[in-house]
Amino acid sequence: MVSSNPLFRGTWTARKFQATVINDIWPEVLFFTLVATMVVLVTEKTSKDLTVSNQLLTVLGTVLGLVISFRTSSAYERYQDGRKMWTNIITGSRNLSQQIWVHIPADRAGKGAGVANTTVLQNVIEKKTMINLVLAFAVSVKHFLRDEPGPYYEDLYPLISFLPRYANGHEGDESERLPLWQDDDDGDRRPIATPATELNAEEGSSQRTSHDTADPEKGLPLHLPQIPSERPLKPARNPPTPSVYDYIPLLRFFKWVVHTITRAAHPRRHGKKRRRNEYVESHIPLEILLVLSNYTAWCMKNGLLQPAIATGVTANLTTLQDTLSNLERICNTPLPFAYQAHLRMSLWLYLFFLPFQIEKAFIWITIPGTAFAAFLLLGFLEIGQEIENPFNYDLNDLDLDYFCQAIQRELHLITAHTAPNPDEFIFSPLNQPFAPADRRTAQQLVASGAEYSLPSDKEKSAAPPGYASLRRTLVRGWQDVNTLTRQMK
């Protein structure tokens, strides 16, 4: 995400210029500026007067500005909704992982017959594996929103490679391949923009070395297991390769003209229609949620989850499911084309006739005035179109890789928690629970006896030893903290 000026941060590249909308609107701004120049030159240098009445200028400009403002606001609302949904994924992943790691016991002596004989190591491996699947869900959502189908990615495949592949066993028939592993065997929909990947594919390598393209800031492969794959793994980030048409959009028109002429000169022979590829694309985030739901049901069946905790686990799984549906709604529901086309054509007509209406009042200033008006209005319109789908690789899109990295860091933090007995750290010489009123450590307080008393309290009104004295100490602590913190302001 753009948190600071990307043009002057780090090494400057031409791609950073795409963070602005100037790269997309400059041909249109140039065109309307040339129209304004033509109107001014003809009117001022010849006997022809091209000016027209400006009666409709104010009314139409106000209406058009309101419509463009609504267009930009609706697009930014979708942008904000996408960010909120990813916050839900981060929160749900965090809560679900905490519940799995803390509340599902590692020592299962006395539990159901199916789990009583397992070792602590086996149980910890089981819980850590499920938490890795929580991370895999977030990563799979990232690829799903970017229209990158299949499980064969450097940051996804190592997390799910152990899941069942066939309906009837580990080595099953291809016709029984489970939906998770349904993928297009003929190739990818988008070419991989990594030379190392093509080289490994040509050499028939069974595993793609993640060190070739791993980006420590944008990718996850260096921090994941190194699992051999039967197919070359695509990089965690696979943005489309920029071309000259991205920097000079006007050339796309000439490309279309050349393509049309070439196709007319070499007509295609009408033969048998090619059979459409009918592979089934898997919904990997949903598949992962099914595995996690099945694990939750297995834990409840064997008495590993208390009913209240099981309710919380189910609620978090439901939150992830709802969030996935909302993200899919944002990604797959663009504004109607008729609305976008009519708004752009209306703006073009307004900007085209603008110099004819203001030339009499501004004369030569009409040229920069038209250029500024075109830059302003077309810029807002282009911004709305760019942030409408905030899940791609543009510099103004949401940084989904950063979100996945944040989830990965937090899940590793959760699994680093050893869940110790509270007695191991509460009654420590480093703990002063009643400070600042009583600065004795917890160890000293316990050693002083079962009845609490404050030795420094020599007042006659002092409470007798016991719970009353403890309450008095807590009130005094509140008074001290309240006074000291107010003095610091």
Automatic annotation (TrEMBL):
Q: Which PANTHER family does the annotation name? A: UPF0187 PROTEIN YNEE, VOLTAGE-DEPENDENT ANION CHANNEL-FORMING PROTEIN YNEE
Superkingdom of origin: Eukaryota
- Listed name of the protein: Uncharacterized protein
Q: Extract the GO molecular function terms from the UniProt entry.
A: chloride channel activity
Q: Which InterPro entries match?
A: YneE/VCCN1/2-like
Kindly state which keywords UniProt assigns to this record, in alphabetical order: Cell membrane, Ion transport, Membrane, Transmembrane, Transmembrane helix, Transport
| Protein's UniProt keywords contain Transcription | no
Indicate where this protein is primarily found: membrane
- Pfam families found in the cross-reference section: Bestrophin_2 (PF25539)
Q: Give TM segment ranges.
A: 362-381
| Recorded topology in the membrane | Multi-pass membrane protein
Q: What compartments host this protein?
A: Cell membrane
**Region (Disordered): which ranges?**
173-239
The keyword Membrane is assigned to this record:
yes
Compositional bias (Basic and acidic residues) at which positions?
Answer: 209-220
Q: Which GO terms describe its cellular component?
A: plasma membrane
Q: What organism is recorded for this protein?
A: Agrocybe pediades
